UniProtKB/TrEMBL annotation:
It holds the Pfam family HAD. This is Hydrolase. InterPro entries: HAD-like_sf, HAD_sf.
Length: 210
């Protein structure tokens, strides 16, 4: 039976950081994005409002800086290996993240079958943020359902990997989940848990490898 593996990005595939933090680092705006991240984590900012403020902060962002942020991010080891094994088994792997699509979609080059992020304006920014395009935790479940329909699968065939509050609803919607370097929001919900810096270790919890 085929399965669909659903990966979160911030704090999961990227260890101890997030796309927004890595982009801001390229611009010398780590302190400013840190304040926005803290407010978002405290529930003081909605995902659309966070995006609006980040777009203002990144007014001069270029594709070159996005590429540098992606390449320099603290990725877990073994991501390409895990996705190659998933595909070799005839299964599917996808990334669903609240982060900007222009960052998340770069993971298609690493072997993901699908990569869904929030729909931000194109870089360099000339247009405002469309709140309807910004994902939240509930939207992760909706995107997962869309992917299931695309691949001829159902929620019962899904495995979710995540680390924090934005993954709670998806963890609750699928039968198997792996908490990776996770916080208290999802540790008690997950079927399995992994702490470390290699995605292969987390994948072994559900693949039977190792």
């Amino acid at each position: 039976m085929s399965r669909l593996h659903l990966f979160d990005l911030d704090g999961t595939l990227i260890h101890g950081s997030a796309a927004a933090v890595e982009i801001s680092r390229q611009l010398g705006l780590e302190t400013e994005i840190g304040e926005l991240e803290k407010a978002f984590a405290a529930g003081e900012l909605t995902p659309p409002r966070f995006a609006e403020l980040a777009v203002e902060l990144w007014a001069e962002l270029t594709e070159t800086e996005v590429a540098a942020a992606f390449e320099g991010a603290p990725w877990l080891a073994g991501i390409r290996d895990v996705w190659a094994d998933i595909r070799a088994r005839g299964e599917k792997c996808a990334v669903i993240s609240l982060s900007p699509g222009f960052f998340v979609e770069r993971l298609l080059e690493w072997g993901a079958d699908a990569a869904h992020g929030s729909r931000w304006p194109s870089v360099p920014f000339r247009d405002p943020v469309d709140p309807a395009g910004i994902l939240d935790g509930a939207a992760k479940v909706r995107v997962a359902d869309e992917l299931c329909a695309r691949f001829g699968l159902s929620r019962t065939d899904c495995v979710a990997y995540g680390d924090s509050m934005s993954d709670v609803q998806l963890f609750a919607a699928v039968p198997v989940s792996v908490a990776i370097n996770a916080d208290h929001h999802v540790r008690h919900l997950a079927s399995h848990a992994y702490t470390g810096l290699d995605l292969r270790g987390a994948y072994e919890r559900v693949s039977g490898a190792g």
